[in-house]
Amino acid sequence: MTHRAENIMQTVFSLLGGLTTTGENISRGRSEPLETLPALVLEQGEDQIPEGVQNLAFIRRVLNLKIIAYVKTNAQFDTALNQIREEVYFALMADRSQGLDFVIDTNPLGDEEPEISGDAEKNIGRQVMNFSISYRHSLASAGA
């Protein structure tokens, strides 16, 4: 049985693959951007158990996700990042259960300040988007 956090990560990965701005340029857990930009990197964050939200049947958790957008442009890199942010937001908020019956809700946690690195010919813009996904699993198994 697969941990429900992994099911969520796989689902979000699929939802974000094929966006108009980034296409299939998405990876999981990489510290460096893909060779082809623009691209997204999906990282799993903390998987917290809030106090007072479990009973004899289930445990509620809150999985934090980081979605990092990378662009390469000599123009307004923040404009390109904002286009990606809009598509990511729409993809995740269109169905706040992510199509999974054990997901309770998806919440945006805010986006970090855009960063730029590289030289004038190879500027790379980067921005982190943060989301949390509340879900539940049985007390006996994190996969059920």
Number of strands: 6
Report the uncertain regions.
Answer: none
Please report which band the strand proportion falls in: under 5%, 5-15%, 15-25%, 25-35%, 35-45% or over 45%.
Answer: 35-45%
Please tell me the total number of domains. Answer: 1
* Helix/strand structural class: alpha+beta
**CATH class value:** Alpha Beta
Global mean pLDDT? 91
CA distance, first residue to last residue: 8 Å
Concise account of the structure shown:
Helix content is 21%, strand content 38%. The protein is an alpha+beta fold.
Give the SSE layout.
Elements: H1 4-16, E1 26-28, E2 39-48, E3 58-72, H2 77-93, E4 103-111, E5 115-117, E6 124-138
Parallel strand pairs: 1-2
Antiparallel strand pairs: 2-3, 3-6, 4-6, 5-6
Provide structural commentary.
The protein is of the alpha+beta class and 144 residues long. It has a single domain (4-138), classed as STM4215-like. Helices cover 21% and strands 38% of the residues. The chain has 2 helices and 6 strands, in the order αβββαβββ. The chain has helices at 4-16, 77-93, and strands spanning 26-28, 39-48, 58-72, 103-111, 115-117, 124-138. It is elongated. The protein starts with a helix and ends in a 6-residue tail after the last strand.
Keywords, please?
144 residues, STM4215-like, 21% helix, alpha+beta, elongated, six-stranded mixed sheet
